[in-house]
Model the fold of this input.
Amino acid sequence: MFILFPLLLGVIQGLAEFLPISSSGHLALFQSFFGTGLSEYNDTTAFSVLLHLGTLVAVFIVYRKDIAAMIPAVFTLIKKIFDFKNKFSFSKLNYDERMVLSVVIATLPLVFLKLFDIVLEKLCSFSLLDTMDQYITKQPIAVGMILLFNGAVLFFSDKLVRKEKPIEEFKPLNALIVGLCQMFAILPGLSRSGSTITGGRLNGLDRPSAVRFSFLLSIPAILGSCVTELPDMFADKSLGLTEWLIFLFATVVACLVGLASMKLLNYIANRSSFKSFSYYCWVVGALAVIFGIVILF
Done:
């Protein structure tokens, strides 16, 4: 079990981080089933950071060409923003510069939410995000209900699209709406990828473009989560060589499974709808609710 649980969490993280089925919701439900066996590792900061880094590496591998093009675009974009001699215009930006700015804009709602929570904790010694996460995570019924809602969001995402447009026509307001959708995905059971893909679809993006933007948007989200937890990770002196080796192996598993899940989602996006994921969320969500009711009695 000492080795099994970290590897199981690695599989869950890699599979559910990118598929629109909610990694946080699945981790919460698995902890409800297996108790402290999984929470012992899932609550370890170092392990959480490493798993997220594993999935981040998967994004860099799959979208290496996009990322390589966006890196120099960051500097040309900054130059154009601060070129006061010429009026800045989003329409005059090239494709890569638009993508960089869209990712930044879509990340802002999540950044503001995190900053608000930090200020609230400093002033009132109360973390809204931690309290909400801890309460919902321990309630299978709540997680199940959110998974049911997640399934409904995926089911209707295609039906609400009136006219599709390529990602080249994406506007700042469209990016902001996707970012607001991502912000609500802090709830365990509400998928980050599912929320951002649905946000992209609601703004008219075709499925492949919505998936692509969702994956690129995951970079600052995952990276930010890792960076904020790094001080606690390095401060933890309780882990020995054996634990680190197992954690690193689980990280490799999360990366490999993440690569497979990204390929699968891209394949489905190009050939079908996301209804299969909505059905899955409904089944798991219903079972979670039933399980939660049973354990109450």
In short: The mean pLDDT is 87.
